[in-house]
């Protein structure tokens, strides 16, 4: 076994999901963990995931073969500093954060570059905490690995193979490339989504007309604004330079639209929308990326008493839990009347299979 004993600092959505899939794939692996809440440790112990049922001192990690740092970036750096002289020399240290600059610098300052692999599983959801973790979260998701030049290629290959065995797709790049890429496709979009929601809220009418009719495209492009404010404050602080760099480039792109519309340059407007459509349409399907996935579909539904209850009962009878369900009043972009959101891809596939026997399904 490559990593007989694995430790986790933090056991929330990501840490808990990684631990669960490791236990499923490698049941003989011993895993221990600490978390911000005692109840999390007790829940993971009750699930048979970890061997400790109470909080541990950091010395308990002294014989780990692999350590996952699964807290916010600054918390990870703090624990790394405290664990530097406790962990054995052979132990591989990795994190799951979406920013690599600060922790890579801390690793260098502590002389741990030959033992540290930056990790970023590009999977997640708006939900947080161990209770929402799943052994299927990494399935078919990209998992970025970052290392410095002095890291052993053999140890990197071993760790990459281990992550791949958990169902993820590994990509290897430098910490600098990672931070700019995630600033562009994740961090800046979260800032834009939040600012767009605030913009609409500040300019809405007294009777909240905009809020009432907001749906379709607005809901879709602002969904990520529901993510944890504290987490995103941490990300903006730790990836500040790359986010600002990306924002400056985005301002130019937005200005191209503004100028073309102002000057009534129809050809330019069409070109800008067309290039965006072409790039967007070419994005890979059925792959998890850095932004949390939404598992939803729409269906046609007659306005009859008990219609929604029938659907909910049908799904429940088949062991399918609904995350959200509701009538779509603004169908400018959706084809169906009823929107159903599930918790994961497996649940969505099962729900579509069951309901397609009696209803017309439209995927988003």
Automatic annotation (TrEMBL):
Coiled coil: none annotated. Residues 4-291 form the Prephenate/arogenate dehydrogenase domain. The keyword Amino-acid biosynthesis applies. The keyword Amino-acid biosynthesis applies. Pathway: Amino-acid biosynthesis. Keywords: Amino-acid biosynthesis, Aromatic amino acid biosynthesis, Oxidoreductase. It comes from the Bacteria. It holds the Pfam family PDH_C. PANTHER family: PREPHENATE DEHYDROGENASE, PREPHENATE DEHYDROGENASE [NADP(+)]. Belongs to the prephenate/arogenate dehydrogenase family. This is Prephenate dehydrogenase/arogenate dehydrogenase family protein. It comes from Roseburia lenta.
């Amino acid at each position: 076994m490559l990593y007989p004993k694995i430790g986790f600092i933090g056991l929330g959505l990501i840490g808990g999901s990684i631990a669960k899939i490791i236990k499923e794939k490698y049941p003989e692996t011993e895993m221990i963990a600490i978390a911000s809440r005692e109840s999390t440790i007790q829940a993971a112990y009750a699930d048979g995931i970890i061997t400790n049922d109470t909080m541990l001192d950091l010395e308990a990690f002294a014989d780990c073969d692999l350590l996952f740092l699964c807290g916010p970036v600054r918390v990870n750096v703090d624990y790394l500093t405290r664990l530097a002289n406790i962990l054995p020399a052979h132990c591989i240290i990795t994190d799951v954060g979406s920013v690599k600059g600060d922790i890579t610098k801390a690793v260098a300052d502590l002389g741990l570059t030959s033992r540290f692999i930056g990790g970023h599983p590009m999977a997640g959801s708006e939900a947080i905490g161990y209770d929402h973790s799943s052994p299927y979260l990494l399935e078919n998701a990209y998992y970025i690995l970052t290392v410095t030049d002095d890291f052993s290629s053999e140890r990197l290959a071993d760790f990459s193979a281990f992550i791949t065995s958990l169902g993820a797709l590994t990509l290897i790049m430098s910490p600098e490339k990672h931070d700019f890429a995630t600033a562009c496709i994740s961090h800046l979009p979260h800032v834009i989504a939040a600012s767009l929601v605030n913009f609409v809220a500040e300019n809405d009418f007294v009777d909240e007309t905009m809020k009432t009719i907001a749906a379709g495209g607005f809901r879709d492009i602002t969904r990520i604004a529901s993510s944890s404010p504290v987490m995103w404050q941490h990300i903006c602080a730790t990836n500040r330079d790359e986010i600002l760099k990306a924002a400056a480039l985005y301002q130019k792109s937005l200005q191209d639209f503004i100028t073309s519309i102002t000057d009534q340059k129809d050809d330019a407007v069409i070109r800008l929308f067309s290039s965006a459509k072409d790039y967007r349409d070419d994005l890979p399907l059925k792959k998890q990326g850095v932004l949390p996935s939404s598992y939803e579909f729409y269906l046609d539904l007659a306005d009859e008493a008990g219609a929604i209850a029938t659907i909910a009962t049908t799904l429940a009878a088949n062991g399918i839990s609904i995350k959200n369900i509701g009538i779509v009043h603004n169908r400018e972009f959706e084809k169906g009347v009823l929107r159903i959101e599930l918790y994961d891809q497996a649940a969505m596939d099962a729900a579509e299979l069951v309901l397609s026997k009696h209803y017309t399904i439209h995927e988003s």
